[in-house]
Design goal:
single chain, two-stranded antiparallel ribbon, alpha+beta, 16% strand, Alpha-Beta Plaits, 21% helix, three-stranded mixed beta sheet, 251 residues
Length: 251
C-alpha cells in the first residue's frame, strides 16, 4: 500500500521528541508545586467531548468606556497591562471599531477564540499548544520553548510572550506563568472545570451590561445556543474556516 506523503510543514517525531525533552530542562519560573493538571492538564487530560465551551459577545451591549472584563481577567490570572502593548501580557483586550460608510462606532473584547482548528496548535513544534476535547485551547508552560510560532500563526493576535520574571504575587497555581513562555486566554478553565463561568463573563454581568454570554455550544438547550439560534452572529475572520468558539453579535 502506498504510504501517504508527509506534510511539508510537519515536524518529524524524532525532532518533536528532541524539542520536548529540551523544554523539560528549560529555565522558566513557575509557581512552586504547580503541575500540569493545575490549568487543565495536558493534551491527554480528561475533558468531556460532549461539551464545547464558548462565548457570545454582543457588541451592541458593550460599553466603550467599560473595561471590567479586562480588569477581571487580569486580577484572576495575574497578568498586568502596563501600557506597553508590544511587551505586555494581554489575555483579553478591548478593540474599538468604526464603520467607514456610516461612522458607527463599536467596542468589543477580543481574546483567544478557542478555534475548532487552531493554527497555534498546528505550528507548535513541541505540542505545548493544544486543544482540549471540550474546545478549550491552552498552552502547556512546562514544554513551551518560547519559539513564538503560535503568536505568528494566530490571526487574532491573542497570544503574548512573557519577557520578564513573573513576581510571586502574580503567580496562580491554576494558571502557571513563566518568563520565556507564551500565554493567552484559558477561558478560565479552572473555573469551567469547577462549574463556574469565566471571570470576564462574571464581571460583565456585575456591571449590568451582560454583553458576554458563556455556555455549551453543543447543548441546544443552553442559553448561548438559544441566543445563537435566535439572533445573527459572526466569527472573526470567518473566511479562514477555523470555527472559533467565540461568536460576536451586533457587528
Amino acid at each position: 500500500m502506498k504510504q501517504p506523503t508527509p506534510r511539508p510543514d510537519a515536524v518529524p517525531p524524532s525532532r518533536r521528541d528532541f524539542l520536548r525533552a529540551g523544554a523539560a530542562v528549560a529555565t522558566i519560573t513557575l509557581a512552586p508545586g504547580v503541575t500540569l493538571t493545575a490549568f487543565g492538564g495536558s493534551a491527554e487530560a480528561e475533558a468531556d467531548a460532549n461539551h464545547r465551551w464558548g462565548l457570545l459577545v454582543d457588541a451592541g451591549k458593550c460599553d466603550p468606556d467599560c473595561s471590567a472584563c479586562v480588569s477581571a481577567c487580569s486580577q484572576e490570572n495575574g497578568w498586568h497591562d502596563t501600557g506597553h502593548p508590544e511587551t505586555d501580557a494581554q489575555w483579553i483586550r478591548k478593540v474599538d471599531l468604526t464603520e467607514i460608510a456610516t461612522g458607527r462606532e463599536l467596542s468589543l473584547p477580543v481574546m483567544c477564540q478557542h478555534c475548532e482548528s487552531p493554527p497555534c496548535v498546528d505550528v507548535c513544534p513541541t505540542g505545548a499548544s493544544f486543544r482540549r476535547a471540550d474546545g478549550i485551547v491552552l498552552v502547556d508552560k512546562h514544554i513551551c520553548i518560547g519559539c513564538r510560532y503560535c503568536m505568528m500563526a494566530c490571526p487574532f493576535k491573542a497570544r503574548s510572550f512573557i519577557h520578564e520574571t513573573v513576581p510571586d504575587a502574580d503567580k496562580r497555581s491554576f494558571a502557571p506563568r513563566g518568563r520565556g513562555t507564551v500565554e493567552s486566554c484559558t477561558l478560565c478553565v479552572h473555573r469551567v472545570d469547577a462549574g463556574r463561568v469565566p471571570a470576564c463573563v462574571e464581571a460583565c454581568a456585575a456591571t449590568g451590561h451582560n454583553a458576554i454570554l458563556f455556555g455549551d455550544l453543543n447543548d441546544p438547550e443552553s442559553e448561548i445556543s438559544k441566543a445563537l439560534a435566535q439572533y445573527p452572529s459572526m466569527a472573526l475572520r470567518d473566511d479562514l474556516g477555523l470555527d472559533p468558539g467565540v461568536r460576536y453579535a451586533g457587528l
